[in-house]
Amino acid sequence: MIDLAAAILVFLGAAMTVAAGVGVIRLPDVFTRMHAATKVGTLGSGLVMAGAALHFAEPGIIVRCVLIVFFLLLTAPIGAHMIGRASLRLGINPWTPRQKQDSKPDS
């Protein structure tokens, strides 16, 4: 039963990580892409680490998994903030739906 729960956690984490990758490819600008990469990527990595901790169930591995998740939760928002700040300083404007309509070629 524990192996099934660990497998489900790892599968959900992998699905979230794939969703983050799709978001990075599909979303229109750097601000929405960094949102997908950090929030969903952190959740996916956390679920994979939870599955690994549950599967191995050894104190050393559980501590490492908790530290990895803590490190991700600590660094991902800071990295996203710095990417967003650098983008704004470079003059990149956030995407709006109006920009999509304006970018259509005149026919």
From TrEMBL:
Keyword match Hydrolase: no
Residues that span the membrane, as ranges: 61-80
Key words of the record: Membrane, Plasmid, Transmembrane, Transmembrane helix
Pfam family, one: PhaG_MnhG_YufB
Molecular function via GO: sodium:proton antiporter activity
Keyword set includes Transmembrane: yes
Protein name: Na+/H+ antiporter subunit G
Organism in which the protein naturally occurs: Tateyamaria omphalii
Taxon lineage: Bacteria, Pseudomonadati, Pseudomonadota, Alphaproteobacteria, Rhodobacterales
